[in-house]
Amino acid sequence: MSEALTSQASDERGAQRIHLNAFYLFAYYGFGSFFPLITQYYDSIRLTGTQIGVISAVTPVISIVTQPLWGMICDRFHIRKQVLMLTLAAAGAIGLLFPAVSTFAWVFLLYIAMSVFQSAVVPVSDSLALGYAKRHNVQFGDIRMWGAVGFALAAFLTGLAVEQWGPAAIFYSYCGAYLIACLFLRRIPEHTDAAPFTVSVFKGLTQLIRLPRFVLFLAATFFIFGTINAHNIWFSLYYQHIGGTVAGVGLAFLLFAGSEAPFMKIAGYFVRRWGLELTILLSSTVSALRWLWYSTAPDTTWVIALFFIQGLSVGCYLATAAQFVRENTPASLQVTALAIYASIGNGLGSMTCNLLGGWIKDTFSILETYLFFGLASVAGLIPLLIIRFGPWKHASAEQQEQFASGQLSR
């Protein structure tokens, strides 16, 4: 009887893992359908470069407000799965409205509405996956890499669909992927891994900013993750500037994003060998060097041939950054901390990098935009160096709670 129960439990865990992997595959398929190719839609309705910059720079700031709010709702009511289901469905439905509009004002309003819901997808998904990884003693990167697979496939396949049927294919692919992700999400059980939420919104934020390692990591995320997100918007124009084709953009993103999956897998080995902090520092350094190299206008052949740089930089960073947040914040505030981390990178960092990057492009050229990305990433290395070699070492979970509540001082 015990062997049968053990076998049944093992089968259930296996099914849950498959559903979680499939969820990440389709959730990020939606991202891959949208962001690498959205400039093709902007071009089709004749938006100016300034208008594209405004949309890309201003709307991510919505996440600065909405991501922490979604996280706090999840912490307070323990309804992460329900929140994720709602936000996926709503974002996908709004996406279907884009082909019906053709003016800057309507695109801007729809993008804001979509961002309100889309901003919850990454932090809440990562919270569920990190909880699963902790319960079953698996690496978060082994789960998150399926998102990279989905993103890579979407960039390539949706690119082919755009060539065949036009930019509207972007939004049909985006919505369809989110709906399929919801179907797999329904089969994933939700477990409450965090302690009950017992503090107010402002008190929770006050507790988190008392943690120097967390605040330093937010500063690094602002620069490093901000430039990574901005690159997804501007690469299409950059690649064509250095002699590439629109078709080549889809191939590049297929290889770039595809390289993330194996490096997310390898990231676990790096963490075990060198530690979490050095792994993050290594990936961030590679990212900075990549943007500086791009600013020299290398041949497109070399950009494609060295596609794996994306995996070594972005893949390793994504696989380890959320883990760093979880290990350096109190258990009772981890969903909120993940939401703030994502809002800084996806929101404030992306807004700043897109806004300045667009202005630099109009004033100089897209090459100088990538030079700016490189210098900004170098600035992001400074807080990471302080985390690794500075006075604030990693604290235990109990000490984190005491530091956050003010019972201990740094």
UniProtKB/TrEMBL annotation:
Keyword Transmembrane helix: yes
GO molecular-function term, one example from the UniProt record: cytidine transmembrane transporter activity
Coiled coil start-end: none
Subcellular localization(s) per the UniProt record: Cell membrane
Gene Ontology, cellular component aspect: plasma membrane
Cited Gene3D superfamilies: MFS general substrate transporter like domains
Membrane-spanning residues: 21-42, 48-71, 83-102, 108-133, 145-162, 168-185, 214-235, 241-263, 275-294, 300-319, 331-349, 369-387
Annotated keywords: Cell membrane, Membrane, Transmembrane, Transmembrane helix, Transport
Main location as per UniProt: membrane
Topology in the lipid bilayer: Multi-pass membrane protein
Major facilitator superfamily (MFS) profile domain sequence ranges: 16-392
Domain of life (superkingdom): Bacteria
Designated name of the protein: Maltose permease
Source organism (scientific name): Brevibacillus aydinogluensis
